[in-house]
Amino acid sequence: MFALVAQAFEVLSDPERRSAYDRGVVEGKTLREKPPLAFEGFDFAPGSTGRQGFRELFESAIESEGEAAQAGEDLEVTLRISFDEAFRGAHRRLSVTRLSPCGTCDGSGHVARAAEPCAACGGEGSTRVRRGHLVFRARCRECDGAGQRVQGPCPTCAGESRVHETEWMDINVPPGIEHGARLRLKAAGNAGRCGGSPGDFVVHVEVDPHPLYRRAGHDLYVDAPVSIFDAAMGGHVSVKTPDGDVPIEIPAGTHPSQRFRLRKRGMPHFGDPGSRGDLWAEVKLVVPAITDASSRALLAEVSRRLAEADAQTSHELEDK
Ligand SMILES: [Zn+2]
Ligand SMILES: [Zn+2]
Questions:
Q1: Which ligand ends up closest to the CA of 127?
Q2: Ligand 2 centroid from CA 100, angstroms
Q3: How far is the CA of 117 from the centre of ligand 1 (A)?
Q4: Statement: the pTM of the whole predicted model exceeds 0.70
Q5: Rg (Cα) of the chain, in Å, rounded?
Q6: Could you tell me the domains of the chain?
Q7: What is the pLDDT of residues 85-144, one digit of tens each?
Q8: CA of 30 to the centre of ligand 2 (A)
């Protein structure tokens, strides 16, 4: 009795242990050994960014096993899509294995069974405790004094309250998603233990780079090859956009690295596909190869006249 009082005093005087005691955690209780679970069939992202992986999460959940409800773990998957899929939206069907509430015990971990006498007290509800020459009768801890047990661990889930289930899952990636974005599907992760809330299903989206388009927010950048003749005299060029080629007018005197904005030809806004970013066509001057003699002579003549015109202009400026 003194030992019990002393233990109670210790528990009550220590706030941390007190709250643990209130949660039903009793010291000295050994945890049951669980067989190791296999996780093959999961398509998980490697812990490349130092995130805690599912396996670690789940193992730590098993280690801290208790009767209290525990929230389910998030499941994480990496989805690689093309630039075109990011532009138009993507659909994937994944085989997902998750822990679901056990159907046999309805997610409680226990099943009712035919009443049988408590093995610890032989059905009496109390046990004998000898202290020196004195013998006390104490209430049986195993059956809480009832003398019989009417609940046992569920045979299907071995008291875990959850079982592995594999099913197809449709993932729809909306248009406009950016590389590195995460989609969180609420409550689609592992079920909680003993009635705890379920985890989420998290999709890490990776978008392959495009050979032509560079993305900055909702805007896209693309090279627009323009010949030196069109740049000098003006002309029309065809600009590549995700919707197809779009002709634009190049004014005379266009210089290298000039940009032309094509409004609403960029990426759709994520969650608002009606809105679009812009596409910027960046002029890349193209110098044609002059191989025949007559073309060379013509260009030489153009060059001589331009030099003359330049000299004339500077003379006029000096005269003023
Ligand atoms: Zn008993
Ligand atoms: Zn069960």
A1: 1
A2: 10
A3: 8
A4: no
A5: 37
A6: 1-30 (no CATH), 32-103+161-206 (2.60.260.20), 110-153 (2.10.230.10), 214-319 (2.60.260.20)
A7: 999 999 999 999 999 999 999 998 888 887 888 888 888 888 888 888 888 888 888 888
A8: 21
